[in-house]
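Progress report, Aim 2. The chain analyzed during this reporting quarter is listed below.
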Amino acid sequence: MSNREGQPLSETSEEKTKRRLSKLITDYLWTYQYSVFYREIEDCPNLISDSNKLKKLIRARFPESPFLICHRTLYKKERGGLQAYLTIFSTKKIADFNKLVVKVFSGGVAARGRLLSHEKIERNASAIRNQKLHDLKGFFGQDVRRYSVVNKAALGEFLLETKKKLTAN
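Predicted structure tokens for the chain:
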């Protein structure tokens, strides 16, 4: 027996999250990926409130463009251990991204962006499907939304052609 999406009813919450997030990454025309790291690991607990401010800013500044925003963690011994960071998938290049981030984040940050290739998108989605999800609740001490889509209404315009054909049948 399966649900309306063809998935087994015994699917765990983690499996569902992995499936939905990897599908969001692979089914749409994301062309840029941005990551934001705090310079000081002690500032990482501010990520949720700072990312909410950034979401409001990009929602207002780029209403025609969808953004997939993900909270993640990364262990870097040389940086002091486990740190939280933000990854943003965008359908277009964000002009002055570093300035936007500095404007809303409470601590010093390092922000970088890159053009995405099909291979990078597939590697990212594969890592989500095959690796254990980051323990955000353990890091932040509360439930945290792992990802969100800003300007979701604009997302349909960026559905890949191969996915449009599948959904039309």
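The chain is about 40% helix and 20% strand. Residues 66 and 154 are 6 Å apart (CA to CA). These observations will guide the mutagenesis work planned for the next reporting period.
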